[in-house]
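Hi all, posting the design record for the shared folder.

TITLE: backbone redesign
STEP: 1 of 1
STRUCTURE INPUT:
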């Protein structure tokens, strides 16, 4: 069994940044990533709010972060974590990380496994991600200036993002499968005052169509049973997010929605285990906040190791 000072679960911006700070502190560490390094960041076609860079694709930024980590001697292992365990969960004893391949032992762990955007089950929902389908209006609104877009969802996030899109897009159509929104009344009242936002209730998107990018969507009315086509260049999905936490033990405190609870130093309820990025209970999930979390978590892990081992 390979042993490390620190194991980082997840190779997104939080995990990659944590690895840099950990290596600079002299820690023997590794990143365990089940898929492609970069996480959700790779799905963003263009990033315009990364400090010091005018414009870069999510894939390019991911590769730059990966290359930098490798240059620091970070070991990146392709493995899916199945279980985080220890003989004594309450103590700070080294943790055992069980994967789809071999198992690893670590004196400290940073959980940076991220989250995934829930999507809709329809034709084209997977094909056009990054080519018209987006999960972040704050990130991608600028790419749809003076173009028609659709927002799918009925909660606060959907309505708030629709309001943001309305400042840029020619018009915004909000589609919700129920007869009324789940969002707060304040958000609904604000939406109703916006002249270029249109609402379609009791309906769901059945197909997202286009050639290279999104061009139109098919909308099915659940009451009339009729299908209509709406020309749009972008589809923003706000039907919820969920974290990757199925490998965690019961000793890790979980907030509503499945997010990991942490204190301000990013400690979880399990000694020696920290959480960073989108997987934790936080109000903002952006690349830059994930990276900041990763740096802080690594510094706190170093302090933990200094005082316990």
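Okay, here is what came back for every position:
SEQUENCE:
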């Amino acid at each position: 069994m390979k042993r490390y000072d620190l194991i980082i679960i997840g190779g997104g911006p939080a995990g990659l940044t944590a690895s840099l700070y950990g290596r600079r502190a002299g820690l023997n560490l590794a990143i365990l990533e089940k898929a492609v390094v970069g996480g959700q960041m790779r799905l963003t076609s263009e990033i315009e709010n990364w400090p010091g860079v005018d414009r870069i694709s999510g894939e390019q930024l991911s590769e730059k972060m990966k290359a930098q980590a490798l240059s620091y001697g970070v070991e990146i292992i392709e493995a899916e974590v199945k279980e985080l365990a220890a003989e004594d969960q309450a103590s700070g004893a080294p943790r055992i990380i069980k994967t789809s391949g071999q198992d690893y032992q670590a004196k400290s762990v940073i959980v940076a496994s991220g989250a995934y955007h829930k999507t809709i089950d329809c034709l084209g929902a997977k094909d056009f991600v990054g080519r018209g389908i987006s999960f972040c209006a704050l990130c991608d609104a600028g790419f749809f200036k003076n173009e028609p877009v659709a927002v799918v969802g009925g909660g606060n996030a959907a309505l708030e993002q629709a309001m943001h899109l309305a400042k840029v897009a020619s018009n915004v159509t909000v589609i919700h499968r129920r007869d009324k929104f789940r969002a707060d009344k304040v958000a609904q009242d604000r939406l109703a005052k916006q002249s270029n936002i249109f609402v379609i209730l009791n309906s769901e998107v059945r197909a997202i169509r286009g050639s290279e990018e999104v061009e139109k969507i098919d909308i099915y009315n659940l009451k009339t049973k009729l299908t209509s086509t709406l020309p749009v260049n972008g589809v923003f999905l706000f039907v919820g997010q969920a974290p990757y936490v199925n490998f965690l033990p019961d000793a890790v405190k979980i907030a509503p929605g499945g997010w990991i609870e942490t204190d301000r130093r990013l400690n979880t309820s399990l000694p020696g285990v920290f959480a960073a990025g989108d997987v934790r209970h936080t109000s903002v999930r952006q690349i830059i906040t994930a990276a900041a979390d990763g740096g802080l978590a690594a510094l706190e892990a170093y302090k933990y190791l200094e005082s316990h081992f």
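COMMENT: The longest strand covers residues 103-111.
Let me know if anyone wants the other runs.
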